[in-house]
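pls read this protein:
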Amino acid sequence: MSVLEVANLESAYGPVKAVRGVSLAVPEGRIATVLGPNGAGKTTLLKTLSGIVDPKRGSVRFAGQDITGGDPADIVRQGLVQVPEGREVFPLLSVRDNLLMGAYTRRDRDGVAHDLEQVQTYFPILRERAQQDAGLLSGGQQQMLAIARALMAAPRMILLDEPSLGLSPKLTHEIFDIVVRINRERGTTLLIVEQNAHLALGVADIGFILENGRIVVEGSCQALRERADIQEFYLGLQQDAGARGERRWKRKKSWQ
């Protein structure tokens, strides 16, 4: 069963189309990833799903409900939450208050208290720094805070935009380990936009390749990792010059 279903979605900034007829489905309880070069439309896609950008056409269904062009706060209440690129924590609020801001749509005080305790078990540094201003945290700690804040909304699905941006490889692996743990322990579905294709394909179940606003390849991550064109263009595996030229031509033919 797919918890997220997107059909023929188009989004634009003025006359410039950023998302061009995207259709995809993400099964409940799975991890999916969207890969693609800079400017491919990945962030715009997530913003459209979460209601920040209004679509020009197409539809978005979440948990069986049409949320196309819905109010972002209503979409959060329905269980779809985005962790934005660049983290965007509230720098002058304490870590604890940032976490509580994530639960602003909820009215179950006991549930909020339970989740506040649980997210601090995923990210112990947030308990240590609970009274510190969020703007004083390191980049990796702010990313942890942004993910924990999203969890405070009790989401059914999280959209995670470039979680490794600006982080060291060690911190990136730590955060992805926790993301996998959240998926396994809470059953939370995730859609991850990520530049680190090795890591994303290693943790996700399903992958989508987005280029020029269109999905050009999709499939299981295991199958994508085995494709020569994905290996060359996204995983950086070296080929001899003749093989590179031949595969580049085949890739253009197969993705058109």
Notes: The CA atoms of residues 38 and 195 lie 9 Å apart. The beta strands are 2-13, 16-27, 31-35, 57-62, 65-66, 80-83, 157-161, 189-193, 206-211, 214-220. Residues 238-254 have pLDDT under 50 and may be disordered. Residues 169-186 form the longest helix (18 residues).
